[in-house]
Design a protein that fits this description.
heterodimer, A: 11 strands, globular, B: 7-stranded mixed beta sheet
Chain lengths: 115, 113
Amino acid sequence: GEDVEQSLFLSVREGDSSVINCTYTDSSSTYLYWYKQEPGAGLQLLTYIFSNMDMKQDQRLTVLLNKKDKHLSLRIADTQTGDSAIYFCAESIGPRSGSARQLTFGSGTQLTVLP
Amino acid sequence: DGGITQSPKYLFRKEGQNVTLSCEQNLNHDAMYWYRQDPGQGLRLIYYSQIVNDFQKGDIAEGYSVSREKKESFPLTVTSAQKNPTAFYLCASIGLAGTGELFFGEGSRLTVL
């Protein structure tokens, strides 16, 4: 079965690094995503990683994937108050270009950045 | 600009009434999805559609109905049979090319009075 788990809350000081963790159970996941949701808004894709990668860096964001432990993390360097939001990890199974793709989302981690 | 438009943003409904949430996309995406979001529970899939005139139930379809008469449109009806309809509803779509991620609308918040 598919299940994605995240801790619900994380607080950090402005300027520090934030690390948001996620575990998933389906070893056949092909893509893993991180989405950001600001209050009252939809989800925006932050970054993604293919299952054959261990790490991906995109400016202040670093994604680490440990397939053995089925663990995904998102590190935000130099966290700013504008980074305060809910962060969802999601796993996808299925062909990359198929419209039958299904995403399973975690419950989301509320990141609070303190001044 | 291309994107997904949901309306209304906020909606209030009396118990026993049906209500329809609109979702329109101009991204030329084939697949469209409806999710329900409750605090601390993440997103749960209600219905999805891979192609016009076809749709499939998700994990929590009971009390909801959809239609897909046009590629651009995927409205969701919350019926009076839905026992706990107060929630934030998100529509999304996915294209065949690219990285395969979902694109989301801004959401509709339904409150039952």
